[in-house]
Target: Nucleotidyltransferase-like protein
Amino acid sequence: MTHNGEDTAPLTRPEVTELRLASDGPDPQPTPAPEPSELPHDRSQAILEAAKQIGALLKRAGHTFALAGSVAVYAHGGSRYLQHDADFAILPEDAEAVATTLREAGLGVRTPPEDWLLKTTCHGQNVDIIFALAHQPVTREMLDRAHVLPVDSVLMPVLCPTDLIHSLISAFSEHYCDFGSVLPVARAVREKVDWDAVRAACGDQPMPAAFLFLLERLNVIDAQEGQP
Model:
């Protein structure tokens, strides 16, 4: 095909890509394509399985914790489409004890450069053990507000919707401001959130305030009293 769309015959003889010496035997049979090993991996279910196993370990060891992140949203009735990792909130002073529990269960524990979490891997999925949310230490009061909910039939504490939304919105900054990922979360749990408490906690910060304004304009939440 030329640039003006007209078909033309090839002007040169095609290259010979392979030369093979003749042999007395028959032509070799082509190698069959390999059979697919298994069906595509359901990553969402793998993340849920990881959350269930880690939650069960922390429960049996008597640690104070709460499920956080996208799996917590799922537990509160949000989407089952999970494409990141499982997150657990713990008290800062419990970090070493939790790490010991995980190691005793045969799980490797990594300390990343960030000084507010530990990392492990379960069922091939990353699991974050977090002791600071949105640059604020996890508190006992926050964990006491957690709801005990089933996560694929395993009961465990889950961050309450207000703390969950607060942690997500407070993380917005000039360097990270992905409204698109948090908008469906806000829609899913909007009736369970104390939005006045969220505004009081972070609404005067520019990026969280912008997100709250967006939620108002989209009629996800009511406008703040006293404003049009």
User: Anything to note?
Assistant: The radius of gyration is 26 Å. Residues 41-159 form a domain with the Beta Polymerase; domain 2 fold (CATH 3.30.460.10). Residues 43-60 form the longest helix (18 residues). Residues 1-40 have pLDDT under 50 and may be disordered.
